[in-house]
């Protein structure tokens, strides 16, 4: 399968910015996604970016895509304690019928 | 607007028992899938379906069966439970895999313990 890699843990102080990084392998992916999982819950789609875009901003969230390096990042501005969760990146290659998820990054926000 | 409904939320099985995890969606999604989530391993695809009557294996299919007799339902059957199947199971659906934006909608999960 595809390799989608993320660091496992990130801690930030409340009010700071968080940056969660992801590398993926399939350059044919049309869309790349960020999902958020709160404790005891399923994953919720947070945002996505189309592969012909470099950046997408949605309120406190900024997604950056570097297709050359196959690198995706999610920046959360003014991080709040409610942002503490596991964040997964995912790609959906144009060949085959599968999504590929990263291992997830557990974000802890310190008050 | 139920979305994706999974039952049960929690289950304890003895080794060798069989059971079915239920998944139903009311969004007329073509694509449905089952994942298991284990610590440090992210989500791993068990089986998926691109439409009623069509199923295929994912990354970790051994010990599991699926069927898709209707668009709405996609049950996952554990044939003979083993401790290695202790995990959190998620069902997810989307409009389609290959046509444009098609992010997943996830169920809330089933936490399974095999003793």
Structure notes:
- The complex is a heterodimer of chains A (111) and B (115).
- With 111 residues, chain A is mostly beta strands.
- Chain A has no helices and eleven strands.
- Chain A has strands spanning 5-6, 9-13, 18-23, 31-37, 43-50, 55-58, 61-66, 71-76, 85-91, 100-101, 105-110.
- In chain A, strands 2, 4, 5, 9, 10 and 11 form a six-stranded mixed beta sheet that branches. Chain A has a five-stranded antiparallel beta sheet with strand order 1-3-8-7-6, with no helix packed on it.
- In chain A, a hairpin with a 4-residue loop joins strand 7 and strand 8.
- Chain A is globular and about 45 Å long.
- Chain A starts with a strand and ends with a strand.
- The model of chain A has no long low-confidence stretch (mean pLDDT 91).
- With 115 residues, chain B is mainly β.
- Helices cover 0% and strands 50% of the residues of chain B.
- Chain B has strands spanning 4-7, 10-13, 19-25, 31-38, 42-51, 54-57, 64-66, 76-78, 87-94, 105-106, 110-114.
- In chain B, strands 2, 4, 5, 6, 9, 10 and 11 form a seven-stranded mixed beta sheet that branches. Chain B has a four-stranded antiparallel beta sheet with strand order 1-3-8-7, with no helix packed on it.
- The radius of gyration of chain B is 13 Å and the shape is globular.
- The mean pLDDT of chain B is 92.
- At the A-B interface, strand 4 and strand 5 of A face strand 4, strand 5 and strand 10 of B.
């Amino acid at each position: 399968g595809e390799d989608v890699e993320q660091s496992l843990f990130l801690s930030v102080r409340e009010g700071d910015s968080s940056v969660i990084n992801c590398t993926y392998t399939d350059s044919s992916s049309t869309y790349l996604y960020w999902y958020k999982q709160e404790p005891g819950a399923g994953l919720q789609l947070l945002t996505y970016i189309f592969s012909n875009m470099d950046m997408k901003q949605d309120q406190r969230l900024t997604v950056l895509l570097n297709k050359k390096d196959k690198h995706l990042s999610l920046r959360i501005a003014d991080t709040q304690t409610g942002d503490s969760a596991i964040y997964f990146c995912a790609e959906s290659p144009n060949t085959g019928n599968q999504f590929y998820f990263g291992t997830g990054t557990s974000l802890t926000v310190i008050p | 607007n139920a979305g994706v409904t999974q039952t049960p939320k929690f289950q304890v099985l003895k080794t060798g028992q069989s059971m079915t995890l239920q998944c139903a969606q009311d969004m007329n999604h073509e694509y449905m899938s089952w994942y298991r989530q284990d610590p440090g391993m992210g989500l791993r695809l068990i089986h998926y379906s691109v439409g009623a009557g069509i199923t295929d294996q994912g990354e970790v299919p051994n010990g599991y069966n699926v069927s898709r007799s209707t668009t709405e339902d996609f049950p996952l059957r554990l044939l003979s439970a083993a401790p290695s199947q202790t995990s959190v199971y998620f069902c997810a659906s989307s409009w389609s895999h290959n046509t444009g934006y098609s992010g997943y909608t996830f169920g809330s999960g089933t936490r399974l313990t095999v003793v």
